[in-house]
Amino acid sequence: MTKKTLVFYPGCIMQTEQYSYEISLREILPVLDIKLVDVEGFSCCGEPLKSVNRMITLVLSARNIALAESRNLDIFTPCPICNLAFRECKNILDNDDKIKEKVNGFLAEEGLTYNGISKVIDLLELLYDIVGLDYIKKHVKKPLDLKAAVHYGCHAIRPSEIGRSDDSEEPRKIEDILEVLGVEAPWYPEKLDCCGGLLNMNLPETALTKTGEKLRSIQEQGFDLLVDICPWCHRQFDSKQKKSGETVAYSLNLPVVYLTQLMGLAFDIPWGKLGFNLNLSPVNTLVEGR
Amino acid sequence: MMKKPRIGVFVCHCGINISATVDVEKVKEYAKTLDGVAVSKDYKYMCSDVGANLIKESIKKDKLTSVVVACCSPRMHEHTFQKVASDGGLNPYTVEIANIREQCSWVHDDKKVATEKAKKLVEAAVAKARLLEPLITSSIEVTPNALVIGGGIAGIQAALEIAENGHKVYLVERTPTLGGRMAQLDKTFPTLDCSSCILTPRMTEVADHPNIELLAYSEVEDIKGSIGNFTVKIRKKARFVDADKCTGCGDCAENCRLKGRIIDEFNMGLNKRSAIYLPFPQAVPLIYTIDPNHCLMLTTGRCGKYPLCVEACEADAIDFNQKDEVITVDVGAIVVATGFNLLDPSIIPEYGYTHSPNVITTLEMERLINSAGPTKGEIQLLDTKEKPKSITYILCVGSRDETVCSWCCRIGCMTALKHLYLIREKLPDAEINLCYIDIRSYGKGYEEFYRTARNLNINLFRGRPSEVRPTKEGIIINVFDTITNKLFEIKTDMVVLVPAVTAREDAVELARKLKISTSSDGFYLEGHPKLKPMDTATGGIFLAGFCQGAKDIQDTVAHASGAASRALTILSKKELEAETYIAVVDEELCSGCGICISVCPYQAIELITEDDKKRAKVNEALCMGCGACTAACPSGAMQQRGFKDKEILSMIEVLSK
Question: Where do the domains of chain B lie, and which CATH numbers do they carry?
Answer without folding.
Answer: 7-135 (3.40.50), 146-237+324-339+504-571 (3.50.50.60), 251-312 (no CATH), 340-502 (3.50.50.60), 583-641 (3.30.70.3270)
